[in-house]
């Protein structure tokens, strides 16, 4: 050390100490570039392990790796998934039979929406470790693996596992706010807010959303969710509302020339929806078009090919349209949709929803006919 340097250290030791502490602290801060998820499970058969999102309507495979002596390791780039999302883990044996892998969460019992004692799901975060001896559980045609050892998780997953209060179902705003204040970093809470969004009031949402950390609010999901609440009041069923037909051509839902427009929301996989089609055909034959009734059916299928197959089978002669992702986002505002089909709307010539019917029953046709007669030119008939 030079004489000048020695003099500086002797004269300004506090400055040097603070500077050193600052650089040591900054350099020791760990920055994660990968989510590392490890497993060491005895009695896990040969095959592969799949990491995927758990919801069938939006399932996405994050990665798949080969099992070696019960051991596996996922390395998921943080750049691909900057948010902590809910994921599930499954095993495919050499015959491509899929089985979920369940593990103990460390939470006892079940209450509300969460508080689950055993699960195959966790939040995507670094440091997840699955260990233990697996046992095969068989229930009819369904089978799964279960570990008797508690999974090692981080704070994102722990919030989900310990949600014994039931963030999904609680309606008391103060209770919800207290939970968010305790875990403002939680992407699990953001995910639940997204699923509660169609039923939540704007004031309730903003009160909870603004308590989350800035990085959660400014995440892609956070920005999209806020945009939904900022704009949803602008989305209503109007003469301009349109959706694509089977050829991909946008068609208006409502008809200004009709005395009444009958809008039926359905899906090919919905049993009651398919069961009511013969009755809808009778209504169409009796009242449609020339008598002032305009009919349109809107599919909520996730896959276009499923919808097109159902159209070929059912041969419905009226207008057939399919929901788009953007319209689905605002389906509650546009149609009053609450995730249940069939849903039937009767819209008058002023563009006003006269009445909506949820589900389908034996007396639905009579109720439809009564309103159709009132708003169209033809007198009551027999369906």
UniProtKB/TrEMBL annotation:
<dbReference type="Pfam" id="PF14289">
    <property type="entry name" value="DUF4369"/>
</dbReference>
<dbReference type="InterPro" id="IPR025380">
    <property type="entry name" value="DUF4369"/>
</dbReference>
<dbReference type="GO" id="GO:0017004">
    <property type="term" value="P:cytochrome complex assembly"/>
</dbReference>
<dbReference type="InterPro" id="IPR012336">
    <property type="entry name" value="Thioredoxin-like_fold"/>
</dbReference>
<dbReference type="Pfam" id="PF13905">
    <property type="entry name" value="Thioredoxin_8"/>
</dbReference>
<keyword id="KW-0201">Cytochrome c-type biogenesis</keyword>
<feature type="domain" description="Thioredoxin">
    <location>
        <begin position="232"/>
        <end position="377"/>
    </location>
</feature>
<keyword id="KW-0676">Redox-active center</keyword>
<protein>
    <submittedName>
        <fullName>Redoxin domain-containing protein</fullName>
    </submittedName>
</protein>
<dbReference type="InterPro" id="IPR036249">
    <property type="entry name" value="Thioredoxin-like_sf"/>
</dbReference>
<dbReference type="InterPro" id="IPR013766">
    <property type="entry name" value="Thioredoxin_domain"/>
</dbReference>
<dbReference type="InterPro" id="IPR050553">
    <property type="entry name" value="Thioredoxin_ResA/DsbE_sf"/>
</dbReference>
<keyword id="KW-1015">Disulfide bond</keyword>
<dbReference type="GO" id="GO:0030313">
    <property type="term" value="C:cell envelope"/>
</dbReference>
<dbReference type="InterPro" id="IPR017937">
    <property type="entry name" value="Thioredoxin_CS"/>
</dbReference>
């Amino acid at each position: 050390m030079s004489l000048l340097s020695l003099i500086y250290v002797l004269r300004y030791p506090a400055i040097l100490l603070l500077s050193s502490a600052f650089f040591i602290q900054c350099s020791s801060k760990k920055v994660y570039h990968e989510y590392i998820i490890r497993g060491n499970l005895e009695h896990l058969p040969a095959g592969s392990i799949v990491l995927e999102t758990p919801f069938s309507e939006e399932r996405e495979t994050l990665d798949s790796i080969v099992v070696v002596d019960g051991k596996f390791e996922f390395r998921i780039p943080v750049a691909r998934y900057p948010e902590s999302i809910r994921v599930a883990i499954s095993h495919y044996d050499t015959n491509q039979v899929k089985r979920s892998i369940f593990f103990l969460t460390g939470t006892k019992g079940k209450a509300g929406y969460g508080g689950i004692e055993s699960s195959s799901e966790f939040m995507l975060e670094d440091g997840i470790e699955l260990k233990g001896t697996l046992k095969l559980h068989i229930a009819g045609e369904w089978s799964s693996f279960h570990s008797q050892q508690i999974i090692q998780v981080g704070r994102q997953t722990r919030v989900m596992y310990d949600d014994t209060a039931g963030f999904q179902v609680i309606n008391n705003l103060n209770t919800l706010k207290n939970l968010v204040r305790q875990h403002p970093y939680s992407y699990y809470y953001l995910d639940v807010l997204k699923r509660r969004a169609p039923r939540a009031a704007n004031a309730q949402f903003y009160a909870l959303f603004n308590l989350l950390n800035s990085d959660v609010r400014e995440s892609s999901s956070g920005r999209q969710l806020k945009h939904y609440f900022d704009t949803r009041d602008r989305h209503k069923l109007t003469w301009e509302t349109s959706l694509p037909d089977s050829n991909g051509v946008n068609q208006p839902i409502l008809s200004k020339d009709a005395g009444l427009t009958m809008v039926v929301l359905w899906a090919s996989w919905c049993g009651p929806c398919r069961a009511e089609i013969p009755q809808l055909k009778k209504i169409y034959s009796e009242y449609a078009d020339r008598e002032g009734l305009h009919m349109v059916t809107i599919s909520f299928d996730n896959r276009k090919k499923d919808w097109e197959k159902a159209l070929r089978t059912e041969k419905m002669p009226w207008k057939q349209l399919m929901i788009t992702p953007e319209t689905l986002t605002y389906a509650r505002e546009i149609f009053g949709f609450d995730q249940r089909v069939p849903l039937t709307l009767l819209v008058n010539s002023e563009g006003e929803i006269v009445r909506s019917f949820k589900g389908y029953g034996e007396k639905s046709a009579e109720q439809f006919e009564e309103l159709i007669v009132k708003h169209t030119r033809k007198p009551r008939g027999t369906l």
